[in-house]
Amino acid sequence: MIPFTKAHACGNDFLIVTEDDAGDLDRAELTRRLCQRNTGIGADGIEFFAWVNRNSPGPRSGRIRLHNADGSIAELSGNGTRCVAAWMAATLGSVAGDKLEILTDAGPRVCHVDRVHEGGAFTVDVTTGMGIPRFAPHTLKLSDGNEVIGVEVSTGNPHFVILVDHADFTVAGKTWQTIGAEICTHRDFPRQTNVEFVRAVNEREIEIRIFERGVGPTTSSGTGSSASATAALALRRCTSPITVAAPGGAQTVAWSGPGDELFLTGPATLIARGEAW
Questions:
Q1: Per CATH, which fold does 134-260 belong to?
Q2: Which residues contact 55 (CB under 8 A, 6 or more apart)?
Q3: Which of 113, 142, 195, 270 is the most buried if burial means most Cβ atoms within 10 Å?
């Protein structure tokens, strides 16, 4: 039996399994099996976790490796990292003001516990340093010949952000889901990419839709929110801090501009603990 914890951040859900509990099982196969919505537990991915520093003085730290629901390895998930921070906080009995360090395939991420909610499911508000985003304009051609103008953004993993004006997020007369599926596997992105569609509500708020690499349409994404805010703040003259509203809920991004680190704030909740075959 494999112990697991299930958590979500704005509806973006993950299983947390320790490396010791996973043992010598194939991580990709295990992820595909457990993340199935109808025949497994159901999740957008599994964060495999190992403690680096649990008891020594200094920030408590751990190492994670993320497998998407399809078994592929992703460099980083902002929401997944925050879910792991919530799990660490619950395990350690963390309080507001504590700092947790999480090592990822995209480098270390420092998570500050802003608030531990009392009552109900264990929920924390966390601010995570997401590194320095890199971005550049990019125009690509779709299979039907239409060109799409967007922004390539790296927040430790790849994103293609499209700024839209329509409330239904359509692009070139097609749904965002259709466009997202094509761009995700476009020849311009040999390792595939996450795709975000961004509509500015006002200078302090944007609304987004997300097609996630290895997952598909999803309710939320921490790195997607970070990438979307990067594009909006750089190109649409929005003002930091900015609220990023996704179907699963809102997060806040603070970014001073090129060369500075971006900070992502949002909640994470532990849903359940259990064992799986």
A1: Diaminopimelate Epimerase; Chain A, domain 1 (3.10.310)
A2: none
A3: 195
* Fold match, 2-130+266-276 / 134-260: yes
Q: How far apart are CA 155 and CA 48, in angstroms?
A: 21
Calculate ∠ Cα 143-145-148, nearest 5°: 90
* Closest by CA position to 221, among listed 4, 15, 32, 44: 44
Domain ranges of the chain: 2-130+266-276, 134-260
What is the rounded average pLDDT of the residues 126-130? Answer: 98
Which residues, in sequence order, are CB contacts of 1 under 8 Å at separation 6+? 275, 276, 277
Nearest-angstrom CA–CA distance, 170 and 179: 8
If you classify domain 2-130+266-276 with CATH, what class do you get?
A: alpha beta
Rounded to a whole number of angstroms, the distance between the first and last alpha carbons of the chain is 5
- Among 195, 212, 89, CA closest to 142: 195
pLDDT in tens, 146-178: 999 999 999 999 999 999 999 999 999 999 999
